[in-house]
């Protein structure tokens, strides 16, 4: 039986979770339907709600309940663990520092947008320096005797360490660099799409893709947004997409990506609704779901065969003669400056660059003043190309301006986890490809729901992956998958 | 200079106002875009936010600040007055009663929807009886030595009294009953519309109407909803509309009505944003704005002449041969059971019926068990028709199930105020009709913005109307307007 302290703690936490969902709705509203002139007032509304949430998260009663709580089973124990972890972290950071970070990152975000538009890193550097200073101060408050960077990593991937990531990423880098060189040097190159891809057609087919991957529109909806995202947990999980006139894959694969995030949230055991385990457990595990949907399933030969047929039906002839050529077009590899536009071969190299640079910044081995130069040098080394301007280099991502140090590696960790899950899935479901070739993803989504989604935050991030794949995750399956796939595609 | 107590009080209140706006956004979301399956979770989110708002409104610090506050000017004084009024009301009602009312009305609302669908008043009566009992208990806590009903009226129309309304409404009733009898007995009858009114055409023209009446979509947006409403204050004021296949006026005039509400909110001095005077001052004054837009301006001969031209351009021939016939069609008078579908002649008779019955309920002169009979008898008397079923009679409105006793009279008060404002407007702006005939409403909306909108809650409800029209408002101008308009239309 739940004891009194637990019961009071959980009731209080449930309201906090509900208010957190409200904050998410405001964010969704802002990015999809909010009137253009409402920004200033919305900022004040969100600040007021953030204040309410902050006061709840630091409410001294939580400390008293935690001291008295004795959970009656593993579900309660995990909830208490998560609440305790959050409470201890919030308590360790002085209020004034939290406020200073909020104010500075809000200003830095605007400064970054201006600097990126003007291709002016020097103008942005002092602001970034201030964000970095405050972020390090926060890391010092949190880290105890551990590494500063790991304290930040904990915000996005609890339990992960830089040592573990360095080893994983260290193994990835040389094989990815080698693979990209072989692919770019190959004679065989995929065909280009030509044709008219109407917005209405793109949106209709992207909604069909979301449903095909198991997205439940009874508990969600699809809208347009400049930068696609998914939002919300439980019974209201929304996704967004975008359309680009001659690039239908942009729309389709960002939809499938967000569908992966959304299906994770929608698949969580309803008993966990509005509890600390009622949402995805970490950024890395979340990204593993969006990535396996998008890449290993959505960009594989069987499923693209089905998509090719549907695209022909919707758009008519678009200059690609058969399903094999279409598969090659979907998986075109090309060197580029921008992480968010990168293909499977290049994507993780973008992340590794940021991971190394941000650790150098946090550990004091690199000054903000030298960041642009360091970025450009590393890019030349791994991508073989010189960065032409800051908006294509060090200024391209929003993360650092927002103080999100420690976030980037979760993208690649998600890819690594997706690689492991894909290998295990194929072992467990040998006839998966036949279903995918018919546009039926249910054997895969059922497998993921059973092993990952339904657990929500019940297990720790690495643990839920390990349980799903039957062993400790590592980068091997991802590398094997990429090398096999692109060797085949490019006739290497 | 603002003193410390005022400054702290206003800062606290500003956050409360911002959180109140967030609640409004959730309501908007629920009625327009929320996924169907999200209702249960949304209820919990809104309950959590309502709890936060309630705790803020009863925060004992407010009492301390109020005791120490010395406002420095009339704007501050009015803000303090409004905060004090709200705080005293909230403090007078026991927490347990507030909670019981919230729970009971929530259940009663569901019971009402079921009873209306089943045309079963007897099944709903016990629930309504419980709502009435708790509502009277609340009125007793609030009323002091004054009338119970006035204590409830104060929620919607601060300062109004049943004595004043009884006198006003008493003068309306016989002349409205006489007018409807003459109109319905007239030989001349307006033409019916025939034609194809596409949803896209209706929505496009309704957006044009909103803009024509001064609605600012930079700080708002228009969506579809089952029951049109307006929502939000300040920089984010949204309206909704609906379309009915063969009834374009339904769409157009509900849009103009909501535009009236929205322009009031949008026209408030920006300096009052997120303060207690940053929104419309009462339901009656609010309704006066929606009604003057919809009726005196929107359904007048000059403006309908312009609308006739636009409708011909958008929909082609729809069986109405000229602008005079169109004016008659827009203003068709017909007996009907439903308040929300009533024309200008019948509308207030619907309200008067409810006003009399709900006072009888609150004052204990009428039992819920006898309500249906009393409704039907009164309806027969004023409308000359027998009610055929409860969903067309006593079960048609949501208000009583939600505990909104005292709300109905503000609809007619709004019409009375609109009558006074219209008379003053025409006196001040003699060439108004020429502009309206061109679809230009700006002389009217400018006049209203200057005299009503911009003040927000600065003056008390009756006072802002009296200042605008240059004297105490009464029902005379509304009656004169209605009698002149419909005598002309029906050749009486």
Helix content of chain A: 55-70%
Rg over C-alpha atoms of chain A, rounded to the nearest angstrom? 23 Å
Return the CATH topology of the largest domain in chain A: Neurolysin, domain 3
The major pleated sheet of chain A works out as: 3 strands, mixed
Average pLDDT metric of chain A? 97
Text of the CATH class of the largest domain in chain A: Mainly Alpha
N-to-C order of helices and strands of chain A: HHHHHHHHHEEEHHHHHHHHHHH
Chains forming the largest contact? A-B, 39 and 38 residues
Shape of chain A: globular
Q: Record the strand order, biggest sheet of chain A.
A: 1-3-2
Low-confidence stretches of chain A: none
Q: Count the helices of chain A. How many? A: 20
Helix and strand composition category of chain A:
mainly alpha
Question: What is the β-strand count of chain A?
Answer: 3
What is the CATH architecture term of the largest domain in chain A? Orthogonal Bundle
**What is the strand content of chain A?**
under 5%
How many distinct domains of chain A?
Answer: 2
What would you call the quaternary organization?
Answer: homodimer
N→C terminal distance of chain A: 62 Å
